[in-house]
Amino acid sequence: MSDGAMITGLVVDPTGRGLDNATVILGDHITLCARDGAFRIDAVPGGDQTYKIVHRDYPVVRGTLEVDGDANYQFQMVRPRAAGAEAGSGILEAKRATESWLIAEFEPVIGVGISTDRTVILVYVRVGEGEIPILPGMPETLGGYPVRLVPVDAAVRSPDATGTETRTRQRPVCGGISAAHHETPAGTLGAVVYDRKTGEPMLLSNNHIFAQCSSDAEARAQVGDPILQPSRLDGGGPDDTVGELARWVPYRVQGKNYVDAAVAAPRSGVRVDPRVFVGDEMVAIAGARAVSRPTRVRMCGRTTGCGWGEVVDWDFATVMDYPTGESILYTDQLLISIPADAGDSGAVLLDEENYAIGLLNGTTVIDGRQYAVANKIRNVIEALDLELPNESLAKKDLLFGALVFGSLIGLLGVASCRT
């Protein structure tokens, strides 16, 4: 068993049906389940291996497996998250049940969300400037809730950055600065985070920034690829390598996605600061926080710089256009009214108390105003098995060595960066 074991299996719901888009973390391996809940992980070392099963609709499941050869397992999620725990859960279920159909059936529809008062399902429609969206066949109500069409001026996108802004070399490395895969023009390093099992520091950004838009169909990057700070577009070169790509969440070309995220291990000798640059100061991340109401937030990205905005939809679903030519479905996202542009992808969004709430992965324009789309931060840290820095760590400037991953499966994450 020198090459390790092959572990296969299913993740199922309480009725025994396969769970689409569950994430399985086994030791240092990460994989997404297929639509029927099936998964496969190769080259798993023998001995006790910790596992974690992550799915948006269920509490995280953790445990330990004794690996002594090829084996097949079934993991059953025992209970869903409390259906009544969130105000407006009825409209949320109606929206989730119809969002994929709306986006697939009505071609100009690029997003589905819920009004801030939790009474109206919002359908975002791409139209020309000054046009009023008209969609023949669009239901007036869904699940008993009225539907409102919202005109959108531009597709949601996560393209390669094309600006010429110069972003400087920063040491120690911190959140809110220019950084990207050595072949990606530009992006943003969102934050210094920590591996939940080892406690070692990691550099967080989007899959499309650190892992080259790697999907379940095509891995466009490899574990160990150099991460530059500043990004290549900002003059970064081999001497500016601050880390090596460690792991990521692959985006699914067909089906729903929740996170566009990747982490890199700091290179030996590279100093990191767990705080985030927000323009006039460096701030410590107070922790992770879920958003369930209009919330004032700020971020600092490579292109736009630092600014404030407001979360206007916290159950947003959208199709995001990638520079690869793919259109990828994301659900359970945040929609934020905040200035953001190409190269800002990967920025972490903080609320007024400096709690992290999201990881920016796309932008659009609605009624002439810029909006950002972001992954919910709790989904990101659970999917990659991370912890956010605490107050005491954030006050230190520490020296860390490189993080070594044994036999890590390179399953890559999505979406382009905007610094």
Top keywords for this entry?
3 domains, 419 residues, Immunoglobulin-like, seven-stranded antiparallel sheet, mainly beta, Thrombin, subunit H, 8% helix, 43% strand, six-stranded antiparallel barrel, disordered C terminus
Structure description:
By secondary structure, the chain is mostly beta strands. The protein folds into 3 domains: 5-76, Immunoglobulins (Immunoglobulin-like, Sandwich); 89-152; 153-419, Beta Barrel (Thrombin, subunit H), CATH 2.40.10. Helices cover 8% and strands 43% of the residues. The chain contains 4 helices and 32 strands. It has helices spanning 89-105, 207-210, 377-383, 391-394, and strands spanning 5-12, 23-26, 29-32, 38-44, 47-55, 58-67, 71-76, 109-114, 121-126, 141-142, 145-152, 173-175, 177-178, 180-181, 188-189, 191-195, 201-205, 226-228, 241-248, 256-257, 262-266, 271-277, 282-283, 287-288, 295-301, 305-321, 327-337, 348-351, 355-366, 369-376, 386-387, 398-399. The chain has a 7-stranded antiparallel sheet. The protein has a 6-stranded antiparallel β-barrel with strand order 25-26-27-30-29-28. The longest helix has 17 residues, at 89-105. The N and C termini lie far apart (45 Å).
